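FW: tagging you since you asked about this chain on Friday. Here's the raw sequence from the shared folder, copied in full. Didn't touch anything.
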Amino acid sequence: MAKVKISKKSTKIDMTAMCDVAFLLLSFFIMTSTAKVPEPKPVDTPASTVQAKLPEHDLATITIGDSAVYFSMTDRDLRVKALEIMADKYGMEFSEDEKAKFALIDGFGVPMDELKSLIALPGAERNREGLQKGIPYETPADSTKKSQLGDWVLSSREALVELRTKDLKFAIKADGKEKYPTVKKVLDMMQKQEVNNFYLVTGLRSEDF
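HL: got it, structure written out here
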């Protein structure tokens, strides 16, 4: 009996289309992703299930870690205007070059008398570990003076009102192991300025937590 001859077909698969799709997806993720901004004080935030995003503009963030406090603002024009108001309050002068460099600094944590030195450093040096010790946040014994952190909060609010006639939004980003007294002092300062609504920055809780 004659055997049936089965024709063999090629098993080769054209992957050209698949490669095109892979490169398109890769290009999409690269162009839409946001690089992590260097921080003067990285902190491990507590976990939660909240997935709401922080505003991308008109936001100031107070970071608390190791009993030190740091301050950041989202918009460059806001940073410059707030710096001008702070300079006027503290009797300091900043050149246009210093203002331009400060506009590029996302967050900082030094007293006013050290701010010029921080601005003068190269960008890669500013976030060197241990360089920025934090902004003074406690109210001085002299009742006629305010904490420098309080002045930054007030100045940034005044700056945004001048720029865009809007209220500045605030976020608090504290380390999960931070001691409560430091956080309470920051909250008390904000309450004195009638800032009672703010975001709390947390990490996303995993399925096993």
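FW: The CA atoms of residues 71 and 131 lie 15 Å apart.
HL: agreed, and The mean pLDDT is 85.
FW: great, closing this out.
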